[in-house]
């Protein structure tokens, strides 16, 4: 199934927002027993590290890649490249294994998943913002084309009108 280039940004928004919301929900549900300034600080550090070094760069990279596509329609899974899908699979598998093995203490799940989920959710929302910017730019281009066509049509009409008024054989 092929979708418009802009829609790839919307799909990335939906996928990463859903993943981020789910991971954030898991982290927050583990938090009540571990509410402390140190844990909040750890969540903030996890958020900042993932946002700065992984997800912030990922959003910029894929937005630029999608915006550079020449063709208007693309296969709907092209919102990411193979490497990004591999990263997503490794992260999901690692997270599932970590929680099911019970190797990580609940405190770790609380602060780490909260920071990671918030960073993922922000990445999804940034893709959504980029989708909105792309749509607005597309609408401006369409409006400019309409204005230009309207000006050309008016100019052509006026030229025909003036030439018909100055020509005696027109009557």
3D architecture notes:
The chain has 171 residues and is mainly α. Helix content is 81%, strand content 4%. It has four helices and two strands, in the order E-H-H-E-H-H. It has a two-stranded antiparallel ribbon with strand order 1-2. Helix 1 (5-30) packs antiparallel against helix 4 (106-166). The N and C termini lie far apart (58 Å). 26% of the residues are buried. The model has no long low-confidence stretch (mean pLDDT 92).
Major sheet summary line? 2 strands, antiparallel
Q: Note the beta-strand portion.
A: under 5%
Strand line-up across the major sheet: 1-2
How many helices? The count is 4
Q: What is the CA-based Rg, rounded?
A: 26 Å
**Helices and strands: which structural class?**
mainly alpha
Instruction: Categorize the overall geometry.
Output: elongated
Number of strands: 2
Question: Approximately how much helix is present in the residues?
Answer: over 70%
- N-to-C series of helices and strands: EHHEHH
Summarize model confidence as the mean pLDDT.
Answer: 92
End-to-end C-alpha gap? 58 Å
The low-confidence runs, each spanning 5 or more residues with pLDDT under 50, are none
